[in-house]
Design a protein that fits this description.
homodimer; alpha/beta; 434 Repressor (Amino-terminal Domain); Rossmann fold; six-stranded parallel beta sheet; 13 helices; elongated; DNA-binding; DNA-binding (chains A, B); transcription (chains A, B); DNA-binding LacI/PurR family transcriptional regulator (chains A, B)
Chain lengths: 339, 339
DNA sequence: TGATTTGTTGCAATCGATTGCGATTGTCGT
DNA sequence: ACGACAATCGCAATCGATTGCAACAAATCA
């Protein structure tokens, strides 16, 4: 069967043109299904191409047409170098992005980059092989992104929105989200709160800020922040050590992510501390796994699917030349069992 | 600063050559840091390129050199069309693959494809923009992959290994894994077992087969299989319905994946059934979340990180022309709390 | 001094598809 | 029967970088 379908390898459009008895240009137009060439020859050429399993070289086409059909997805790991792409939040967002992009016929190129200089993003957008770029997370690279955004339009960033910024972002109002979580814990009667998260990136820092602001309505409550990395092996140790230090001193924990919350709950369970009765715990993100665990996680939802849709829509508009603006989504408290 | 760094836009190597007073060829060699050009001119040209923020067009380079530095990662969704890329197992494996590939300087292009004809894989490998391809899961497309593997060498597949196949696979011995899970349940004293999973793909089917074979050592035990899809919304309903039908009739469940197990445990919990006391549950995969849930999941581990490493290594060897063979990894029972 | 080697650089072909423009053939109207 | 016009198709330039080969100068050797 293989022999029947591929009588001789056709390597390029010119060879196909030769055995079809036409010129290369005609073949190109025929394969693009342009009405400029006669319907019969067009179909004959297409059939011939199918027989020989020939497909035009994408590199050449892209070089010539100056467009690639490829969207770059970039994950900068500035302040958290040990974090891997396999982090569930990245993966979830990335999964939705991939769904959106492939459904609209785009290809997708992933780069994880550990910023070694200020040029990492320039290298990516200037490489000449992208129609646009999506950056997931600002890390501590806000300024670099800002600089590139000045002259490169088809760029959309997942992250925080600062007043007057040039870069186009899609993201949730992190301060509002932090406030939601803290208020939920206060409403349950918790008074001695802890915050688990890494505040080196702007997003988590804003969540802490929001939580702190919520505390101002409850003068007798306290909130202390404990650095907690996301790299998952280390995270568990850090949390265990926090819990050790805090034994009996707290009754509520605002976690900066669902993963941190999940690990925290398990470690509390191991110490024989009941959730939410003795210590209430909130997450952040509302990953799919938040509903699958026991107890189900009370968390601040950012609608990742909607966010992905917004990013792709915005990017598409910017590629088309429009001047699409940032999107700030409102977080929502999802009240389940853990707080 | 922007104006200082980019006095005039340099669009290609020829323009750079002109303002450097040399030929395009020299610039090309200088930028590639070849010792063929004088060290001084080389550094002068590199400095000039840096000043102007110039980077050679990748499309042109790739067209000329016939190599792209891009590895395609393909996810065929043959029997499970509604499943999204955001499935945790895919994402986890993909994450590790991304880590491995980016660390070795490769770019990575993701395609999710719903096989509409027999040509989907041909389209991808013949597109001329890949150095090699990784296929995640065979779905029901074994034959298509087999055909392409006959003439396209740099192709590595995650999935099952059949006697005499041509395609190069990396995967776990699924039958052995299924047997491990079943034997664990039997060893706990369970006798009336159920299997939750979708046996349309070869991998899950083999897990069921292995479990059935393990049963032969326990004549008084039974195992019934219940179709359970992976698309997560539907999965929960199916499982709920199974549990309804099976109420009180079973004491052990072999789940085809950790996600199925996680959902099953939560639903059992909702029905007031204790895990593992009344019904023991095993998972499959050992995703990171298996340790984070309560109760921690007893599961059959496939070392996804090692698998990713093996896939990338094998692919690299095949790109280099070697004749690397398949890898069959041995699964391992990770005994935690759920069984 | 003449021949040969070494070190640098330029020239031009090449990768493979796309596309503007001109050439050819055939059709229609008058 | 002749010019206008449409439908097809071929020619050749183009996208931008790479690289074998030749050209040239300087340096070394006989």
């Amino acid at each position: 069967m293989d022999d029947v379908k591929k009588p001789g390898k056709i390597r390029n459009i010119a060879e196909l043109a030769r055995i079809a008895g036409v010129s290369a240009g005609t073949v190109s137009r025929a394969l693009a299904d342009k009405s400029l060439v006669n319907k019969e020859t067009r179909e004959r050429i297409q059939a011939l191409a199918r027989e020989h399993g020939f497909r035009p070289n994408q590199m050449a086409r892209r070089l010539r047409t100056q467009q690639t059909g490829v969207i770059g997805v970039v994950i900068p790991l500035g302040h958290e170098r040990r974090q891997h792409i396999s982090d569930p939040f990245f993966m979830t967002l990335f999964g939705y992005l991939a769904d959106e992009l492939t459904e609209s016929g785009h290809d997708l190129m992933l780069s994880r980059v550990i910023p070694g200089d200020d040029e990492w993003l320039d290298r990516i957008v200037d490489s000449g092989m992208l129609d646009g770029a999506l950056v997931i997370g600002q890390s501590n690279q806000f300024d670099v992104i800002e600089r590139v955004a000045q002259h490169y339009r088809p760029l959309v960033v997942w992250g925080s929105h600062r007043e007057g910024q040039i870069q186009c972002t899609v993201g949730v109002d992190n301060a509002a989200g932090g406030a939601l979580a803290a208020r939920r814990l206060l409403a349950r009667g918790a008074k001695r709160l802890a915050f688990f998260g890494d505040t080196n990136g702007p997003e988590i820092a804003e969540r802490l800020l929001g939580a702190q602001q919520a505390l101002s309505a409850a003068p007798d409550a306290t909130l202390r922040s404990f650095p907690t990395h996301l790299a998952s092996d280390e995270m568990a140790n850090q949390i265990a050590s926090h819990l050790q230090d805090l034994d009996g001193q707290i009754d509520g924990i605002v976690c900066a992510s669902d993963i941190i919350a999940m690990t925290t709950i398990r470690l509390l369970h191991e110490r024989g501390i009941a959730v939410p009765e003795q210590v209430a715990v909130t997450g952040f993100d509302d990953l799919p796994l938040a509903t699958r665990m026991v107890p189900q996680l009370t968390t601040v939802r950012q609608d990742i699917a909607a966010g992905a849709r917004a990013m792709v829509d915005t990017l598409r508009r910017r590629i088309a030349g429009e001047d699409a603006a940032s999107t700030i989504m409102q977080p929502e408290l999802i009240q389940r069992e853990s707080a």
